[in-house]
Fold this protein.
Amino acid sequence: MSSTVRVAVTGAAGQIGYSLLFRIASGELFGRDTKVELNLVEIPVALEALNGTAMEVNDCAFDTLTSINCFDDPARGFEGCNWVLMVGSKPRGPGMERNDLIRENGPIFTGQGQALQKAAADVRVAVVGNPCNTNCLIAAANADGIPRDRFSAMTRLDENRARHQLAHKAGVAVDQVSNMTIWGNHSATQFPDFFHARIAGRAATDVISDHQWLQGEFIANVQKRGAAIIKARGKSSAASAANALLDHVKSFIEPTADGHWFSAAVPSDGSYGVDEGLIFSFPLRTKDDGNYEIVKGLAHNEFAQEKMHTTLTELREENAVVKDLL
Ligand code: NAX
């Protein structure tokens, strides 16, 4: 028997939306037996472009897609949704500081958090729009009655980037790289943790003998990959971000294989010294009952502790900038 999942995507007329919508509608995300209803949410000036994208999705004649509707009101767009993918946000303008961006985008996420009132009882929210950790914190704080653990922010693109870097360096296929944790903020302070990563079942630090590369170039490559792509392509990552979002959602739906984990930013339960409630990227496992847990007990040496402290400090500072919105 087929079931139906209703998915809202904000910022759906943007770059990531254009790579994302077709893959959700095709059944790739929720499976061939699940019908998909797509609710696309944009700001009024982008509605015409959004309609164009919706026309193209319809023209694919996906047999898993039962409806596609466009909205400029998130409260209507989120009604009855099982998944809300918050991709839309304002880009950083010339000369804008990170804190200005945080303040600019904050109100979008207070409104969208409140707009979740009429979502499905089992709604889950994934935030991509930057600064995604703090935007996620704001949305969750404004969504009365929705459990905090239904909210996550995406660091999966960073995890995938890191896995590729390690595979390339070790000369193995990327599927041999696992347990790659991104700790902290989706920003240049994130800590891609090669200490606990595994390559073909062995510690990455045993397989890659060049520890100087791991501690320096590897971390910098992952942290600055977004900027490198903008420099090369003239536009920010879009298809890889959409792909990572599919991976992110799938990881929350499907039980995690034994011994493995994935990275996403979720409300801290106080683990690893991270303030409770802060949206921090951790290693996670999805259990058979569909709930996730933070992987506990990973040891951090002095190098890792310093990295953890840097990203935690940045998130605390971001939190302070939006205190009035929480
Ligand atoms: P685009 O500028 O192409 O599209 C953003 C869309 O959001 C636009 O169509 C705009 O009209 C819409 N929008 C703005 N305010 C909105 C609102 N209040 N409600 C609904 N829609 C609204 O950006 P794109 O390349 O698609 O990137 C989207 C977001 O993802 C950006 O914030 C970007 O920084 C962020 N990213 C996050 C990543 C992550 O790993 N977490 C990686 C990729 C990406 O950089």
Summary: The longest helix spans residues 302-321. Residues 233 and 250 are 28 Å apart (CA to CA). The chain has a mean pLDDT of 96.
